[in-house]
Design brief:
about 300 residues, alpha+beta, 7-stranded antiparallel sheet, 3-stranded antiparallel sheet, globular
Length: about 300
């Protein structure tokens, strides 16, 4: 499964939902200091107010969610808020409500104790307000978007790119430009894009066929969600399993989260039971004010 994210303008991770929306430049490895007001906003001269969305992170161009989600070599979960040098995690000073954040409103209207906190054994998505368990031997990264990965190797179609045997990554649905209103519709719409970006043309020669393995309701972090799981057959390299899971954020019922997963079909890759265990272990992040929950 691939894990690259291309350069481009994306919603500023520090945007709090108040004032003009800004975009920040993602250079392919990290957030830069370059900001702009989206052209559409300039043309209309309108101020858009966010509703229930804390922040948007870089659009995940692959199931791997971008190399910024890789952990350090220690195999432990790394806290992006306490390790600002861990490139290319977003600058923690620009998180919503953080003092001096470019997307804030004069220091932010959210008290520091209300910010999601990281904890050992979990990768925390500070934009979505959830924590993903890090299985033994896996690597995790917390930040504005979170992910856990295992088994890196040179991608079959491009040895300069790095692929992983298994990965699970979270992001607000808005960052993927998904405008569907329900968890079911969101998961159903995202799965094809997820599959293509995980095992698509450049790295795996394209997907020749797929089989739907699951399409069902599921409870995640105490919220009612929905997941769709495919088995995909590729032209080159390993085949794979991909899953798109959507559910409301523990922070806000009207904010949908997408968790993209991808596992190679290979003896060196983790089994699907690991994916199920990770899903069951997803919980509300500490400090969100919402109770932690697991799957029913």
């Amino acid at each position: 499964m691939t894990q690259t994210s291309p350069p481009g303008w994306h919603p500023d991770p520090g945007y709090t939902g108040f004032g003009p929306i800004q975009e920040r430049w993602w250079d392919g490895t990290q957030w830069t200091d370059q900001l702009r007001v989206p052209p559409a906003t300039l043309r209309s001269r309108r101020i858009r107010i966010g509703v229930g969305i804390t922040a948007a992170v870089v659009v995940l161009a692959a199931i791997g969610g971008g190399v910024y989600l890789l952990a350090d070599d220690s195999g432990t979960t790394e806290n992006a808020a306490t390790s600002p040098s861990a490139s290319p995690s977003p600058d923690p000073s620009r998180q919503p409500g953080a003092p001096g954040g470019s997307g804030g409103n004069g220091g932010g209207d959210q008290a520091p104790e209300q910010q999601p906190q990281t904890e050992d054994g979990y990768a925390t998505d500070m934009a979505s307000g959830i924590s993903i368990p890090v299985p033994d031997g896996w690597k995790g990264r917390s930040g504005m978007g979170a992910g856990v990965t295992t088994g890196t190797y040179a991608c079959p179609g491009d040895s300069k790119e790095e692929c992983v045997r298994g990965g699970v990554f979270s992001v607000p649905a808005a960052a993927l430009k998904l405008t569907t209103k329900t968890a079911k519709a969101t998961a159903e719409k995202d799965i094809a894009t997820n599959a293509e970006e995980s095992y698509g043309e450049k790295i795996y020669g394209g997907i020749t066929s797929h089989e739907q393995l699951k399409s069902e309701a599921v409870t995640v972090a105490g919220r009612q969600g929905y997941r769709v799981r495919w088995k995909v057959v590729t032209k080159n390299g390993d085949d794979g399993y991909v899953e798109s899971l959507a559910f409301p954020s523990p922070q806000a019922e009207d904010m949908l989260i997408v968790v993209r997963s991808g596992f190679d079909i290979n003896p060196k890759a983790p089994g699907l039971s690991v994916l199920d265990d990770i899903t069951k272990g997803i919980k509300a992040a500490s400090g969100t004010g919402a109770g932690a929950g697991t799957n029913a």
